[in-house]
Amino acid sequence: MIIQCSDLERALRTPELMPDARAHAEHCENCRRELYLWAEMSRLAPSLHEEWESPSLWQRIRSALAAEQPRRARVPVWRWGLAAAAAIILAVVLLQPWHSRPAGRDLLTQNALDEVLRAETTYAQSIDKLAALAGPGLQQSPSPLAAAYREKLLLLDSAIADLKTSAENNRYNTYLRTELASLYQEKQKTLQEWLQHAKTN
Amino acid sequence: MGTVQLALMDRAFAADYNSEADLLAACRRQDIRAFEHLYHSYGGRLKSIAYHIVGNRQDAEDAVQEAFLKAYRGIRGFSGQSSIGTWLCRIVINACYDVTRKRRLETEAPPDQPAPKEQLPLRVALADAMRRINPRHRMVFLLFEVEGLRHSEIASILEIPEGTSKSWLFEAKKELKRLLTEGRS
Asked: For a surface tag, which of A77, A120, B48, B68 has the fewest beta carbons within 10 Å of its beta carbon?
């Protein structure tokens, strides 16, 4: 097709006409300039992509997302009271203190508790040693991963402290003891993961 | 202390995702690590798009942050018909409009950019001309020519037919060519 200057716009819309448009432009200074500019815009456009470092942006986003996460509602005090009352009634019904029972049953419970406490203390001490091993590297590392581990460990420590207080007030509560043990396990796992990561990097 | 929070943090240490479906599933569980993955994959492009709309880096970063927050809140409503990247582009563009509206209310409108001086290097002149063309046409030019998206993706982001995307790109280039020619003649 023979292209004239007035056909140029149509040619730019229709890729099939472009070879003819280029052929025309070889002899037409105006159209050559137009085609050059058209191509230059596409060539230069990717260089307008704006790139810059934003070292704190992900941390800001992460904090905002973490703040959005659903929080476990605090149990009202009256519910704890109700639960405690129910537990006492259940214990009284099951143990039937008005009936005679073999001597040493309480002692057995006390012994079991002492044993759990001893194991718990030893476990906590070994985790403290692990924490001391991970500590310097973990505290000094500026990486986002280290920050995430630090945050997780802080949360775990706070949870352990809360649970220990509750367990002190309910010494025979097996559930609390189990929960505490699982938090210790979680802390151990987290520390081991970090140490493994530190070792491989 | 939330067990849920702990569980979420634990999952946040999970490794990579084998497919976009895996990533999407993790996002739907509101796994922050999955969103971090999205940030590392698309953050650069999102910042650049935002920068070209709002005009400065600080507001662009605010818009990207807002977009991630919106994505996090709305991920369960995302049908998955487009890619997550495309979906994020749409959200960031809307966040930019919000930021721009807010800035307009806070401050007086800035004076128009001066017309390009003669014989400016073409790249600078193009950047300047881009700010002065029809915003819809500019958006298509930005997404197609600057950020390298396909017309099908642009159509999905801007919720327009693909043909319209092509037509707006042509109009954008026509306007730009006019402005560049004026500035350089």
From this structure: A77
What the block records as the tokens of A177 is: 């003891």
Distance CA A119, CA A128 (A): 14
ipTM: 0.81
Q: Which of residues 19-58 of B touch A (CB under 8 A)?
A: 30, 32, 35-36, 39-40, 43-45, 47-48, 51-52, 57
Q: How many residues does chain A have?
A: 201
Q: Are residues B36 and B95 in the same domain?
A: yes
Two structure tokens written together for B149: 């998206």
CB A47 within 8 A of CB B123: yes
Segment A167-184, tens digit of pLDDT: 777 777 777 777 788 888
Same domain, B14 and B92: yes
Q: Judge: A51–B44 Cβ closer than 8 Å, yes or no.
A: yes
Mean pLDDT value across residues B80-89: 92
Structural domain including B142 reads: 115-185
Does the predicted model carry a pTM greater than 0.80? Answer: no
Q: How far off is chain B from A93, nearest CA to CA, in Å?
A: 32
Residues whose CB is less than 8 angstroms from the CB of residue B155 and which lie 6 or more positions away in sequence, other chains included: B161, B162, B164, B165
Cα separation of A114 and B108, whole Å? 72
Dump pLDDT digits (tens) for B27-49: 998 899 999 999 999 999 999 99
To the nearest whole Å, the CA of A198 is away from the closest chain B CA by 14
List, for residues A124-170, the tens digit of each pLDDT value. 888 888 888 888 888 888 887 888 888 888 888 888 888 888 777 77
| Chain B CB contacts of A38 below 8 Å | 173, 177
Model confidence band, residue B148 (pLDDT cutoffs 50, 70, 90) = very high
Nearest to A49 among B35, B57, B146 (CB): B146
d(CA A195, CA A131): 10
Distance CA B20, CA A107 (A): 59
The minimal CB distance from A68 to the residues B73, B145, B180 is found for: B73
| Amino acid in position B67 | A
